[in-house]
Each structure stands twice: as C-alpha cells, then as structure tokens.
Design goal:
Layout: H1 2-8, H2 19-31, H3 39-58, E1 63-64, E2 67-68, H4 69-84, H5 93-109, H6 113-129, H7 141-164, H8 194-209, H9 214-227, H10 248-268, H11 275-291, H12 319-334
Antiparallel strand pairs: 1-2
Helix pairs in contact: 1-3, 3-4, 3-5, 5-6, 6-7, 7-8, 7-11, 8-9, 8-10, 9-10, 10-11, 10-12
GO molecular function: DNA binding; DNA-binding transcription factor activity; zinc ion binding
Subcellular location: Nucleus
Domain Xylanolytic transcriptional activator regulatory: 86-172
C-alpha cells in the first residue's frame, strides 16, 4: 500500500491514473481469489509498483524494507511484462492500456526512449482495439471523460516522444476514423485539463495540414495562436481567472512554449525537445488532485468549476524550455525569421 500511495501522490506522474478509481480497483483485487483476478489489472498494479519504486530509486532511495530498490523495480517490471504478454489482442480493457502506458513511462525514465516509443505503439494499438478513439456515446459522462483524457494523453506522448526521437507518429490524429475530436476552443472556463485539450487541438490541426506543406502548417499554428482563448494568450492575457484558478498562468506558459516550439520546428526544420514539456504540463493534473478534496467523478469532469483554495503554489515549469527558446532566437536572427516569434518577446 505504501508503494501504491507513493505513486498516486506523485504530482508529476499521477495523471496516468485516477487515484480514487484505481484504489477501488486495487482493494477489489485484494479481495478477489487469486485464481479469479484478471491479468490486465494484475499487470497494471505491478506497473504501479515498478514505477513507484523506479522513482524512489531516482530520488536517492536505495532500500525498501531491506530490499535493493533498483533490483526490486527491475524484477517487478519483468514480472509485469510476463503477465501483460499473456493478454490477447483486443482484451484487457482500459487497465491494459493504462498498464502499457505506465510501461512507457518506466522505460523512458530509465533512458530507454526507443523502447518507450515502441511500447507506446502497443498502448495506442490496444486503445484502438477497445475503441478508445470512438465518441463513447453510450458511456456515462464521467466514464466518457476518463476515456477521452486517456486518449489525449496517449496522443500527446506519441507526438512528443516521436518528435524527440525524430521518428514518425504511430498514427495520424487527424484520421477521420478518430472520433475523439478536440473540444471547442470557445465557451468554456479554465480547467485542470484545458491546456492539454488545446494542445491536442494543435496536434490534430498540424497533422491535418502536413500534407499541404510546411507553409500551411505554419499558417495553422499561427491561426491556433490567434484563436486560443483570451485567458491563454501571450502577451496581454485576460487575467480574470488567475486568482481563482492558480494554475492558469502555468498553463498559459505551457501553451505558449508548446506552440512556439511547433512553429520553430516547422520554420527551422529542427526538432526542439517536447517530451519533458508535455510531462510537466500533464503534471499539473496530478498537482491539482493532490491539493483538492473534490470527490470522483466530479473532479475528472473537464469543465467543472476550478478549486478556489489551493494549499500550495503550482510547481514552476517550462523554465528550461523558455531558456531554450531564447537561445534559439540567435538562429532565427540568422535566417531573418525572428519576427514570426514576436509573441514571445
């Protein structure tokens, strides 16, 4: 239980699972006879153990109840693989998709980015097999939102990790078969997931424009900047939500950096690193959960009112990204493209 809670309480990683939902599954798993437990849930729980131990090791912890933490996380990861490999294609449900995604997180955290990229492909394939890319019209609102958020997170990781490795996306997010469309830009107040919805919209728009050439892609990115909600615009944003929604300034910086990197990449033909920024943007979901007591399912709904009381300020993100962008201005000056990035100055 300590290992599970350590993972669920991590601001920077707990977005992959809904803590309340997972703890209910975890308790049911313990209460179920061993011969009746499902391999997908067993594998997911082992993945949580492996990830939790992995990040304990990264934090300098060497022993856990007398056992070597690094050896333990490796052994649990291997055991999870064995269980996961027994799951047939199209089976395992959402738990299997979540488990594969946690595997990608574990591999990436150990420096095995190429292996993480391949595992992410497995997670996306499993998601497609169970219809996670569908509109989920028959689901409850909370279940539909869970499914949509998991799909969006997988897509953002795919876009970022593929970009960092200079590898192609595993699928085209603009494919007409993908029914999980971006939420409308206008008409919604800020939420803990809003910046990720807007980032997903950018990914879909860029993917749709790529066949028409880089010039069209740059035009689409510029249009995305122009149409972004006023509270997220840089400079001179609408700050009416800032005091009530403490994470909004951080989300604003996230979107500014994400859009700027996309424009830079398609202007300069280079690839600035995206994955760390995406992970930090996703961590805002975990941070919000850790300081509010709103029960499930309300807190997982995309546009419920933001919490008015937060016990700690948001963790600073994007500093490295911003430093990178400032240093990139020298390259922009060399090719006369600096004016295209005036919104960052």
């Amino acid at each position: 239980d300590d290992i599970v809670q350590n993972w669920l309480n991590r601001d920077d990683q707990s977005y992959a699972l809904d803590p309340t939902e997972f703890m209910a599954q975890y308790e049911r798993w313990w209460a179920t006879p061993r011969e009746k437990v499902t391999p997908s849930l067993t594998s997911l729980i082992l993945r949580v153990f492996a990830c939790s131990l992995r990040f304990l090791a990264r934090g300098g912890v060497t022993e856990f109840y007398g056992m070597n933490v690094q050896e333990l996380t490796d052994n649990v990861h291997t055991a999870a693989n064995e269980v996961s490999n027994s799951i047939q294609p199209g089976e395992g449900g959402v738990s299997h998709v979540q488990g594969l995604f946690l595997t990608a997180i574990w591999l990436e955290s150990t420096g095995q980015k190429k292996e993480a990229w391949h595992t992410l492909n497995k997670a996306l394939t499993a998601a497609l097999e169970i219809g996670l890319h569908k509109s989920h019209g028959g689901m409850s609102e909370s279940d539909r939102e869970r499914a949509r958020r998991l799909w969006v997170i997988l897509c953002l990781w795919d876009d970022a990790l593929s970009s960092d490795l200079s590898l192609p996306l595993h699928f085209n997010p603009a494919d007409p078969a993908i029914e999980v469309s971006p939420l409308p830009i206008e008409g919604n107040q800020p939420s803990v997931f809003r910046h990720l919805d807007l980032h997903y919209q950018l990914c879909v728009s860029v993917a749709a424009a790529k066949p028409r050439g880089e010039s069209e892609v740059r035009s689409v990115i510029s249009e995305w900047f122009e149409n972004i909600p006023e509270e997220y615009k840089q400079p001179d944003p609408d700050t009416r939500w800032d005091e009530e929604w403490r994470y909004l300034p951080t989300q604003r910086r996230y979107l500014s950096s994400i859009g700027s990197v996309a424009l830079f990449n398609h202007t300069m033909g280079k690839r600035l690193p995206l994955l760390q920024a995406v992970k930090e943007g996703l961590s805002l979901v975990g941070q919000e959960r850790s300081v509010t007591e709103t029960p499930v399912p309300q807190h997982i709904l995309a546009y419920s009112p933001p919490p008015s009381q937060l016990s700690k300020p948001p963790k600073p993100i994007m500093e490295a990204f911003e430093r990178f962008m400032k240093s990139a201005f020298s390259d922009l000056d060399n090719v006369g493209k600096r004016d295209e990035f005036h919104f960052l100055m």
